[in-house]
Design goal:
Number of strands: 12
Helix content: 40-55%
Shape: globular
Strand order of the largest sheet: 2-1-5-4-3
Distance between the termini: 29 Å
CATH superfamily of the largest domain: Transcription factor LuxR-like, autoinducer-binding domain
Pfam family, one: PAS_4
Mean pLDDT: 75
Protein name: PAS domain-containing protein
CATH topology of the largest domain: Beta-Lactamase
Number of domains: 3
InterPro entries: PAS (IPR000014), PAS-like_dom_sf (IPR035965), PAS_4 (IPR013656), Sig_transdc_resp-reg_C-effctor (IPR016032), Tscrpt_reg_LuxR_C (IPR000792), WH-like_DNA-bd_sf (IPR036388)
GO molecular function: DNA binding
Radius of gyration: 22 Å
CATH class of the largest domain: Alpha Beta
């Protein structure tokens, strides 16, 4: 998976939590990456009541029929309900071709709508309520170069966070909005700043405050305006903020994403999101800053869950990402207490499982993946306690 394409879809997912109508763009991007014609986020309960925050290329009649009848006999949904984990499931692994031919669900609904094949993922589970994402289409898995379940899996933690943010903001709408929005943004591990129409910082979550304190990627001037640390790139940020804060001729506020640079020349990424629920208030946009080498650290257990890494591979991926600023593999190997050759073997396995081929791409991908998670001061110790080597793997000291 291309890291830039991955990052763009993750940006769209988080925009879906705060910008009316943005879920459609997120689903379109997700369908493009995973490979499908239809994408939707759905919720089902004991009575199979359903809603879809977004779907593409599926008409209302088909969706209504699914909710009223066919959801109850969907074999893939039954498989997701049967598992206790947040997993990605390829429908072709759950239902055989022979079973599809006998299935009322596939004969009367899925096949007539061109949805013979699907991949689904559990986003959230609360009691009897199940939130899940589905990408479906007519192309079977054998016609795809990559396993669709593997392509979907890294997006599930971000979908979970985005849905949680959207629900919390919905609850806070009307009364107590500001306090609720602040509490919600502070839950995110990514550096998120709320700014007004003039670019003045109104709130910075803990990760963003840490980033501002270092001043290597962003800082504020005496008037409280957000500035990039490389002055020549400031015009790009101003244009993004202007588009996000002020409607265009059609009445639309749009965001955008730019590549910027730290004071040491290494890249960082800035995404500006119109904060649609804040119309008429001091907050006009959210600015999300991704600093691949200056973050608070990547929880190895997150990397294990998202990419299917072994404990040792997760520690290596986290350590290599942390040292991407220039420490080199020799330094990483020394810090982990293993030989350079052992480190290279684990790193090659990490590349194979994440689909990247360079340390720079790994750093970007890992930072985007872990950006939705908070990692407190004890995160590294907690991860170290959970990481047990599999047979044949050396015991690695987790990165500090």
């Amino acid at each position: 998976m291309d890291p830039e394409q991955y990052a763009d879809v993750v940006d769209l997912i988080y925009a879906g939590a705060t910008v009316p109508g943005a879920w459609t763009d997120a689903m379109r991007g997700l369908a493009s990456v995973v490979g499908g014609d239809v994408a939707a986020v759905l919720v089902s309960g004991p009575a199979e009541g359903r809603f879809t925050p977004a779907n593409i290329a599926l008409d209302e009649v088909a969706m209504r029929a699914y909710g009223e009848r066919y959801a109850r006999i969907d074999p893939v949904v039954r498989a997701m309900r049967a598992t206790t984990e947040r997993v990605a499931i390829d429908g072709d692994d759950v239902v055989t071709a022979a079973e599809k031919r006998r299935s009322e669900f596939f004969a009367d609904w899925a096949r007539p709508n061109g949805l013979d094949h699907c991949v689904c993922g559990v986003v959230d589970r609360a009691g009897e309520m199940l939130t899940w994402v589905v990408i479906a289409g007519s192309a079977p898995r054998r016609e795809r170069s990559e396993d669709p379940a593997d392509l979907l899996r890294p997006f599930l933690p971000h979908l979970e966070r985005a849905v949680a943010v959207e629900r919390r903001l919905d609850r806070e709408a009307g009364t107590g909005w500001c306090a609720g929005a602040i509490a919600t943004i502070d839950l995110l591990g990514a550096a998120v700043l709320a700014v007004d129409a003039d670019g003045r910082v109104r709130h910075a979550n803990p990760a963003a405050a840490d980033l501002l304190g270092r001043g290597t990627a962003v800082h504020v001037d005496r008037g409280g305006r957000l500035l990039l640390s490389v002055a020549a790139e400031q015009d790009g940020l101003r244009r993004l903020l202007r588009r996000a804060a002020r409607p265009d001729a059609s009445g639309t506020r749009v965001g955008g994403r730019m590549r910027a640079h730290r004071t040491d020349g290494l890249p960082c990424y800035v995404h500006v999101i119109p904060f649609g629920v804040a119309a008429g208030r001091d907050w006009a946009a959210l600015v999300v800053v991704t600093d691949p080498v200056g973050g608070r650290g990547v929880p190895p257990d997150v990397l294990r869950a998202v990419f299917g890494l072994t404990p040792a591979e997760a520690i290596v991926a986290a350590a290599v990402t942390a040292e991407h600023a220039g420490g080199g593999l020799d330094r990483v190997a020394e810090g982990l207490g293993v030989s350079l050759s052992t480190l290279r073997v684990h790193l090659q396995h990490v590349f194979e499982k994440t689909g990247v081929h360079r340390q720079a791409d790994l750093a970007r991908l890992v930072t985007v993946v872990s950006g939705g998670f908070r990692d407190d001061a004890n995160g590294a110790d907690a991860a170290a306690r959970d990481l047990r080597p599999v047979p044949g793997e050396p015991r690695l000291r987790p990165p500090r």
